[in-house]
Design a protein that fits this description.
It is built from 8 helices and 15 strands. The protein is an alpha+beta fold. The chain folds into 2 domains: 119 residues, no CATH class; 166 residues, Protein Transport Mog1p, Chain A (3-Layer(aba) Sandwich), CATH 3.40.1000. Strand 11 and strand 12 form a beta hairpin. Helix 5 packs across helix 8. It is elongated, with a radius of gyration of 25 Å. The chain starts with a helix and ends with a strand.
């Protein structure tokens, strides 16, 4: 009897071990979808810290003004929740940053995905005191912003991959040696030997991308004035406005903002600025990525813009940005 009972127990244990991965898989599939608006962040922090230096630090980083937009908009819409109120629907929010300030806590910043919902990111910031937390954040004052920006961008990229315009993708590989995940609702507006323009149009919003190449001429990649001059030249001849003789141009009253990038070992320059239409009253923000061809003889520029006169521009530009950041160099 003892041996039979022992054998049954062993079989039962083996059965449990066998189904554990399946249970974990089911629990992952059972997670609800994340909630909250694009660009929104829930910050969980005790009120006394939120009203002090730590809350001010978050406001100066996550809620600071997004550069290169025609009207002021924050990088993220920050919603503060004290720990006592963090429950219910807040658990499924798309972006959560939890601050734990306690003498027994380690000093660390951790990032987890899909904790309480799919496509969710939860950042935990732990420190022994408020001063130590501020010091830790100060060592890399854009870390939280980078995590959240990348997560928002990757959500859009996954969405666009599921509705990608495969015909356009093949054309871009053949023509420029680059791959982009462009949604199906973008259509080609015009095309030339070293140029292509595709866009998504609604009655009130326009989102467009154009790609062009030009001889590098031995110039440095970070020669921003030359990059803008080439953009203006290409746009003048290829991006017409609604009225006869009108065309897109860079708005030179605003100095473009540039920063270096790296795409799989390829150096690039990101440039953000504002555009307008010469001969009309249209305008909005743009973002471009410029890099050199493998033989270093040509500059390749992928430029995206937004026209949304009745709406905030940040999230529409992030949608275009997600397409640009899906860039893969395959030439």
């Amino acid at each position: 009897m003892y041996q039979e009972t022992r054998a049954l127990n062993i079989c039962f244990c083996l059965f449990l071990i066998g189904i554990l991965p399946a249970c974990d898989e089911v629990s992952t599939r059972a997670l609800p979808g994340c909630t909250g608006k694009a660009g929104e962040v829930v910050v969980v922090m005790d009120a006394r810290f939120w009203k002090g230096g730590l809350g001010e630090s978050i406001a100066n980083s996550l809620a600071r003004e997004q550069e290169a937009l025609p009207q002021p908009e924050p990088k993220f819409n920050v919603v503060h929740i004290p720990h006592s109120s963090f429950k219910g629907l807040f658990f499924t929010h798309r972006n959560i940053v939890i601050f734990n300030i306690n003498n027994s806590n380690p000093e660390e910043i951790t990032e987890e995905n899909n904790v309480w919902a799919t496509s969710q990111v939860v950042i935990r910031v732990s420190a022994s005191t408020e001063a130590r937390c501020l010091e830790m954040l100060g060592h890399d004052n854009t870390r939280l912003e980078r995590i959240l920006t990348t997560t928002e961008r990757n959500r859009l990229r996954r969405k666009f991959l599921s509705v990608a315009n495969k015909e356009l993708a093949s054309k871009l590989i053949a023509k420029f040696g680059v791959s982009l995940s462009v949604p199906k609702d973008y259509v080609i507006a015009s095309e030339g030997d070293n140029f292509i323009w595709f866009r998504k149009e609604t009655p009130e919003i326009s989102q467009g991308i154009f790609i062009y190449t030009y001889d590098n001429g031995g110039q440095e990649l970070n020669n921003v004035p030359r990059t803008i001059a080439m953009r203006d030249s290409v746009a003048r001849h290829n991006i017409p406005g609604p009225l006869e003789g009108s065309y897109m141009a860079t708005m030179h009253d605003f100095t473009p903002v540039s920063s270096p990038l790296n795409f799989a070992g390829t150096n690039a320059i990101e440039t953000r600025g504002l555009w307008n239409v010469i001969g009309d009253f249209m305008g909005g923000p743009f973002i471009s990525i410029t890099f050199l061809s493998k033989d270093q003889t040509r500059s390749i520029c992928v430029d995206g813009y937004v026209y949304a006169p009745k709406y905030d521009k940040r999230n529409y530009l992030r949608q275009v940005e997600a397409v640009l950041y899906s860039l893969e160099i395959v030439e």
